[in-house]
Amino acid sequence: MHSVSDINYIFEVRVLGMKHCVWFIFWGLTQDQDLQKACFGIFLVLCTAIVVGNLFIVATIKSSFRLTSPMYFFLSYLSFIDICYSSVTAPKLIVDFLAKKKSISFVGCITQLFFVHLLGGTEIFVLTAMAYDRYIAICKPLHYTTIMNKSMCSWMVASCWLGGFVHSIVQALLTVHLPFCGPNEIDHYFCDVHPLLKLACTDTDVVGLMVIANSGMISLTSFVVLTVSYISILVLLRKRSSEGRLSTCASHIIVVILYFGPCIFIYLRPSTTFSEDKTVALFYTIITPMLNPLIYTLRNEEVKNAMKKLWSHKISGIGK
């Protein structure tokens, strides 16, 4: 716990309707100095793995002539989003492990909140699009190429980005006009809606309900749709004894559980915060983006073979 003299509280002041700059102080994942130094090294490695692993998937799909199906088209976008998503929170988290004062400006905080929800919402919709693609491929194979053509895939990706933008702009607008009168300490490692609602010096019950209706219901509805879709697919695959496609769908299911479980836990509840929230948030901001490349490559022979070819070409090129 910081003392008043240590953090030098800076409050928002409203004079003649003008809004002055306010700074927030993150508590971070831990207050233990020794543990922070250890976490610096650990999370630096994790974030490097996120960037390298997902970049490798994007490069493999873009360079391979075999990985041209819509599934890999969506997978490349998922990897790109994972790189961007982790970059919104992870660099600040890593720097703050060695910083004496983990501060962020009001503008920086709202900007971070906007991009967290833009990329997080887009990832939810991309995962839903991937489930739809698998459903069509397995349940309607004769119509697959007709339904999932290039224009359809491009339209679906554009819709995912639009949905993420609408979701994030609503979250930002719900927060940006709130009055913050102090204290300015955020018990988290990045700016999110619930921690900011806790600091607002006004009644936030209505805003909290709107957050549930927005973030919570998007997460829950998408999770239910995905669950029903994959149950239908798995039932059909068991009847056909299709082990290859069953393995691919199992990869999708693992990603969905790792990503949606923490999101539902955090956003589908009243505007209250728990000390466990920041630990749970690690799953969808860092852990899942890091595991996605492993999950999709370890259970997909086509991707593994394409990666081996790409890697062998790189090594042979360096040797020459």
TrEMBL record:
Coiled coil: none annotated. The chain crosses the membrane at residues 7-29, 35-59, 71-90, 110-132, 153-174, 217-237, 249-268, 280-298. Gene3D superfamilies: Rhodopsin 7-helix transmembrane proteins. The keyword Magnesium does not apply. InterPro entries: GPCR_Rhodpsn, GPCR_Rhodpsn_7TM, Olfact_rcpt, Olfactory_Receptors. It is found in: Cell membrane; Membrane. It is a multi-pass membrane protein. Keywords: Cell membrane, G-protein coupled receptor, Membrane, Olfaction, Receptor, Sensory transduction, Transducer, Transmembrane, Transmembrane helix. Residues 53-296 form the G-protein coupled receptors family 1 profile domain. Pfam families: 7tm_4. The keyword Cell division does not apply. Belongs to the G-protein coupled receptor 1 family. This is Olfactory receptor. It comes from Pogona vitticeps (central bearded dragon). The gene is LOC140702744.
